[in-house]
Amino acid sequence: MMEIVRIPTKAHAFIQEQKKAGKTIGLVPTMGALHQGHAYLIEKCKRENDFTVCSIYVNPAQFNNQKDFDTYPDLFEQDIAMVKALGCNAVFAPSHQAMYPEGAGENLLQFNFGKLASELEGRYRPGHFSGVGVVVAKLLNIIAPHKAYFGQKDLQQYLIIKKLCRDLSFQTEIVMCPTKREEDGLAMSSRNLRLTKTEREKAPLLYSVLSEAVLELKSGKKASQVKQKAFDEIAKEPMFKPEYVEVVSLESFEILSGQLTENAAICVSAHLGNARLIDNLLVQV
Ligand code: PAF
Fold first, then answer.
1. Alpha carbons 199 and 114: distance in angstroms, whole number
2. What is the best residue among 28, 31, 62, 276 to mutate for testing ligand 1's pocket, by most ligand atoms within 8 Å of CB?
3. Model confidence at 271, in pLDDT bands (50, 70, 90)?
4. Which end of the chain is more exposed for a tag (fewer CB within 10 A), N or C?
């Protein structure tokens, strides 16, 4: 039977019991509106741990845009049916009051992730990573899993969570899983639900532009030229409003502009209708 636990102290006690019984614990943190990308994380978590917990919580502290928060898809019943079918052992679905008894506003603890958070998502979503840091730290304290699973689509988030764990000595191993894509290449995301039919048809452009850019980077073209070309190609499509295309070091996440001499990622963010889409591809040299 799959337990649904809503109160942090109860969730903690329940997971401690599982640990005492000798089980390894895996956590898949989510904000709900689950798709096949989440299913992949849960399946991997199940293979690698004795007991799989999925958290479903739309974290107000990480939204820099109130409308994005207010319209974030809520599919709780459907999500529960999906995680049950996948064989998840427990769901942690707390209330806002339980997570932020004093509110998630200005008085909340702030994290500064330094250089890792100053560009890309950090630049366009001020305060976002601090809010992610707070909620992930809370989840790791409440569940105290052996491993926690995150998708590569949110590459900068993954690196920030790794830093959070390193700097604060969390004992959880942070595992990154490859981005799951639709057949036409569009990265799976809960926000894809906001796309109209026509926007959805245009959406795979991001993946095709990134794929082409990877080939160019591997052939020795300068990162500054490749990213400008990719940006222009997205901007040419009137439905898209690109925010950034950046080539970053996988090690330091610093922006690269020359020929690649280290492993990198090319990352994009663009608005398409009411959805803000992000994606990235790794470039191994
Ligand atoms: O990637 C997400 O869905 C969220 O940022 C996370 C990690 C669940 C924290 O709210």
1. 35
2. 31
3. very high
4. N
